[in-house]
Design a protein that fits this description.
The complex is a heterodimer of chains A (about 350) and B (about 280).
Chain A (H helix, E strand, L loop, with lengths): L21 E12 L2 E12 L3 E5 L6 H8 L7 E6 L2 E2 L4 H7 E4 L11 H12 L6 H11 L15 H13 L5 E5 L7 H18 L2 E6 L2 H4 L4 E6 L2 E6 L1 H7 L3 E7 L2 H12 L3 E4 L2 E6 L2 H15 L5 E7 L3 H9 L8 H9 L8
Parallel strand pairs in A: 3-8, 3-9, 6-7, 7-8
Antiparallel strand pairs in A: 1-2, 1-4, 4-5, 9-10, 11-13, 11-14, 12-13
Chain B lengths: L16 H4 L7 H17 L1 H28 L9 H30 L2 H6 L5 H24 L11 H28 L3 H17 L15 H6 L1 H14 L6 H24 L2
The chains are: A alpha/beta (about 350), B mainly alpha (about 280).
Bound molecules: adenosine-5'-triphosphate and magnesium ion (MG).
Adenosine-5'-triphosphate binds next to strand 2 and helix 1 of chain A.
Chain lengths: ~350, ~280
């Protein structure tokens, strides 16, 4: 299910090209916590209606950046404008324009789902006559209708997460911040939520700013900033980032690898490396190269047999590896769960 | 989750409220929302209501029976006031200070469990949030105070409806000031442990120096300043005037001091609460 996300899905709308002026402007943002620099002089812009992603490993500074943009964390240096308002001087105006789904739980578990949503409506002045309709709508959207009058403390982790998402949509923010929104959700639900997020952008031109360390989720973004140790190491569309690490990779095993390598080098002018019992080479477009190779190989060397053939397209993981020399751990579920249990950890905002 | 995404999943109903709503300096709907949430949780927490019933019984028995012989023979002897009647306003004050401070701790809970972020990221003036908290705590404490009042007939103290009405207002003002104090403490604290330490250093001395359980007129001179700066002194004085008609200051002077105290304390709380 997850792997399929790499392929373009014809059912999904094509990304909106940024046309308008930036709705988020970040210039030389720095955030220090004592001796630690959590965010180290980053600058970027997000356009209206764009799905913009922050991709990076644990502790990279993703949440710190999001909280700064949402006016909860005061920057040490730099300027940030959200929806045209300064996050320091005009924080109330910024707060009116945004919605956020935090990484850590922020529900009141002593209230029911409906009560949590009603509270949110009051904080954001959702017009009174619309409240019950909207609450019903988001509960239905997140499939929580049957549990709406239960105390949140009786909810499972995934239900809580869905309720957080439901609540974040309630006041229909112009800019929606999602800090690792789908952590703890099953693949089916993650997929469902991503389709809805795309729909939101399509219908309301909602700007989406999200963080993730899931590679497949990053693929949903129009543009991605890769962040590591508080620094943006690359910022581009997923396709362009992947082009950066180069070409498709081809792995073959043949009846005579040395012979095959020599033919490929002579005939296609491509260097093939022989390692263990397999042959690896880089090609620009594997989808075209492979049929050609298989068609011509018997003619070039009649006794050569291709046993296996594997195409590997570059992933964002490769991009990250190339830029930082490290891997983002794809599945960090254990660690996340541990963190959820660590609720009592002493922490201000 | 069994839902499948399809075209019937359309947009959220209604208008774009965030873009049309205009706010003033204060946001009373948000204040009301915060007040309502605190009260909902108060009524759900049955142990707190039971505590509100048990506490006055306990203190009336303990103080009334054990301190009565010692105190009525000395300082109260000449006034002819029954000691159990004398300490009744003190027991109300105890209920108020307990409940007010306890309700203010919820700020620390909300910070620990993340809910405070939901409130802080909302476009609500910080003062409106604090007012919601202070009014919520004051309401809870007043409700507990009313429970305490139900014990008045048991000690032979009959309060007429007008007195009860006066007490309601008096209790609310005192509780508001005390909750405001609790809010300052919990805004300054980052942990429950810290709150415990501070409230021991503030709440207990405040209570014993307020004249709640014994007259403070004969206190040594170096203690006097502490008595005068103690807001609960004025609270107990006001309660005593309304219930048994004796007191040191003018009733409205007491109320004025408590109101000024509440305003000053909230002004201190605001920047503390608003820090990162
Ligand atoms: N309140 C704080 N006080 C001190 N240090 C902090 C605070 N918040 C974050 N940090 C530090 O700042 C760095 C960046 O943290 P941040 O939460 O932004 O990371 P992240 O990219 O969101 O990571 P994750 O994927 O684990 O959520 C970390 O080293 C973290 O320890
Ligand atoms: Mg994070």
């Amino acid at each position: 299910m997850l792997e399929q996300n790499n392929a373009p899905n014809p059912a999904l709308p094509t990304p909106v090209q940024p046309v308008s002026s930036p709705i988020i402007e970040v210039a030389h943002l720095v955030k220090r916590y004592g001796p630690l620099t959590a965010v180290d002089n980053i600058s970027f812009e997000v356009h209206e209606g764009e799905i913009f992603g922050f991709l990076g490993p644990n502790g990279a500074g993703k949440s710190t950046t999001i909280k700064t943009l949402c006016t909860l964390v005061k920057p040490s240096e730099g300027q940030v404008k959200v929806a045209g308002f300064d996050i320091m001087g005009q924080s109330d105006a910024v707060r009116q324009q945004i919605g956020i789904i935090f990484q850590d739980p922020t529900l009141d578990s002593g209230l029911t789902a409906v009560e949590n949503l009603e509270f949110h409506c009051m904080m954001y002045h959702v017009p009174r006559p619309e409240r019950s309709d909207r609450i019903k709508y988001v509960l239905d959207l997140m499939d929580l209708d049957a549990h709406k009058d239960r105390l949140v403390k009786t909810y499972s982790g995934g239900m809580r997460r869905r309720l957080e998402i439901a609540r974040g949509l309630l006041h229909r923010p112009r800019i929606l911040f999602l800090d690792e929104p789908t952590v703890g959700l099953d693949p089916q639900t993650r997929n469902y939520i991503w389709q809805y997020v795309r729909r939101l952008r399509e219908i309301h031109k909602t700007t989406i700013f999200m963080t993730t360390h899931y590679m497949d989720e990053a693929e949903h973004c129009d543009r991605i900033a890769i962040i590591d140790h508080g620094v943006i190491v690359a910022l581009d569309t997923p396709a362009a980032l992947k082009r950066m690490v180069g070409e498709d990779q081809l792995e073959l095993t043949t009846s005579d690898n040395t012979l095959a390598a020599r033919i490929i080098e002579d005939y296609y002018k491509l260097s093939a490396t022989e390692r263990d019992d397999r042959l690896t080479l880089q090609v620009a477009e594997a989808d075209r190269f492979v049929p050609a190779l298989l068609g011509e190989l018997p003619r070039l060397a009649s006794n050569l047999v291709v046993n296996t053939l594997q195409i590997r397209k570059p992933t964002l993981e490769d991009v990250f590896l190339k830029l930082t020399g490290r891997l983002i751990r794809e599945e960090d579920e254990g660690k996340k769960d541990e963190r959820r249990l660590n609720l009592r950890k002493r922490r201000r905002l | 989750m069994a839902k499948v995404f399809n075209d019937s999943v359309m947009s959220l109903p209604g208008t774009d409220s965030a873009l049309t709503f205009r706010r003033g300096a204060l946001d009373w709907e948000a204040t009301y929302g915060i007040w309502r949430r605190d009260l909902k949780k108060f009524f759900r927490e049955k142990s707190r209501l039971w505590g509100g019933i048990a506490r006055p019984i306990l203190w009336l028995i303990i103080l009334g029976s054990s301190l009565k012989p010692a105190i009525s023979s000395s300082s109260l002897g000449s006034t002819g006031i029954d000691y159990t009647h004398y300490i009744f306003p003190g027991v109300i004050a105890l209920t108020l200070i307990f409940t007010s401070i306890q309700s203010a701790i919820s700020i620390i809970w909300d910070r620990e469990f993340g809910f405070l972020k939901e409130v802080m990221v909302a476009p609500v003036p910080r003062l409106s949030i604090l007012l919601g908290k202070a009014l919520g705590g004051a309401t809870q404490a007043t409700i507990q105070g009313i429970i305490t009042l139900a014990f008045a007939p048991l000690i032979g103290l009959w309060l007429n409806p007008l007195v009860l009405l006066g007490l309601l207002g008096t209790m609310f003002v005192i509780a508001f000031a005390l909750t405001a104090l609790g809010i300052v403490i919990s805004s300054a604290m980052t942990s429950f442990e810290g709150f415990g330490v501070i409230s021991n250093f503030v709440v207990m001395p405040m209570y014993f120096l307020s004249g709640a359980i014994y007259p403070t007129e004969s206190a040594p001179f170096w203690i006097k300043p502490l008595i005068y700066i103690n807001p609960l002194t004025y609270g107990v004085d006001a309660l005593r005037q309304v219930t048994i008609g004796v007191g040191v200051h003018d009733f409205w002077f007491d109320m004025g001091v408590l109101a000024v105290f509440a305003v000053v304390v909230l002004a201190i709380a605001l920047p503390l609460f608003n820090r990162e």
